[in-house]
């Protein structure tokens, strides 16, 4: 367990040294810290500033994630890769394309970390209901950006949240990240809650890898659910197992309102995924 956590810490550490002392993290330093890793969290890149969308980070973060994916393909091809760097809807497909180009793509071991969306959803619902967020279990599917974030409140047992109240809640969940970016006013985005979400996901993966059954987390993975609509990656509840993805759950029963949210999600998600795939085709890792 410590080793996996250490790998993530080491990447940040190397990069911090890089900024402070001009230490070059690639390729040998990076290779050294990645070799033998079982879980690698990738939160590298720039966070957004007020007024930016996550997609506005694409130009900077796409090549950073591509190069780290290449390093992982070479140094730890069997590791579970947990992608936090935004835009997650595009950086996960970028990783997949790089791993494919190196012949080591295992769709069961590549995850976009969307845990924060359910953490936020639980918090916002608990504020409305006066409940403990730890006891709220809100399903959020789709992607990790704006309208691609689709909370399924009808499945949460709170059918009394409806109308304008529901619209406000959904919008707050979809744009909760923007709220933080605005509040931090140029100092970055939700770094600490991202760390908590990443740690929760990594912990779940570790528990599953050690044989615990019934470990379910929401995550953005290579998914069969909407491939027929040209959407190759999708976040839904996933049962984790010793080999990574064990079972991808479908979205369940939706209200007509949620169907509408899902349609909007799929349209954007398709474009975000295609953008990532095209980037690697046009800018392959060296
Ligand atoms: N998936 C999620 O739920 C969330 C994702 N994020 C995303 O995580 C990313 C990082 O956000 P923060 O940690 O707040 O930013 P930060 O600026 O605090 O940390 C970014 C790290 O990336 C490293 N880095 C920069 N360029 C690099 C390169 N070329 N190669 C390797 N490492 C490099 C930096 O050294 C630094 O350690 C952003 O893209 C942000 O949007 C943030 C919050 C939640
Ligand atoms: O909003 C951002 O830029 C960071 C992020 O992904 C989140 O907080 O969910």
From TrEMBL:
Residues that bind substrate: 48, 54, 86, 120
Annotated Lactate/malate dehydrogenase N-terminal domain residues: 5-112
Keywords for this protein: NAD, Oxidoreductase, Tricarboxylic acid cycle
InterPro entries, A to Z: L-lactate/malate_DH, Lactate/malate_DH_C, Lactate/malate_DH_N, Lactate_DH/Glyco_Ohase_4_C, Malate_DH_AS, Malate_DH_type1, NAD(P)-bd_dom_sf
GO molecular function term, any single one: L-malate dehydrogenase (NAD+) activity
Pfam families from the UniProt entry: Ldh_1_C, Ldh_1_N
Catalytic activity line of the entry: (S)-malate + NAD(+) = oxaloacetate + NADH + H(+)
GO BP terms in the entry: malate metabolic process; tricarboxylic acid cycle
Active-site residues from the entry: 144
The enzyme's E.C. designation: 1.1.1.37
Keyword field contains Cytoplasm: no
A Gene Ontology cellular-component term: mitochondrion
UniProt: NAD(+) binding residues: 61, 84-86, 194
Segment forming the signal sequence: none
Keyword Transmembrane recorded: no
NCBIfam families referenced in this protein's UniProt entry, alphabetically: MDH_euk_gproteo (TIGR01772)
Subunit note: Homodimer.
Family as reported in the entry's similarity comment: Belongs to the LDH/MDH superfamily. MDH type 1 family.
Protein's name according to its UniProt entry: Malate dehydrogenase
Gene designation per UniProt: MDH1
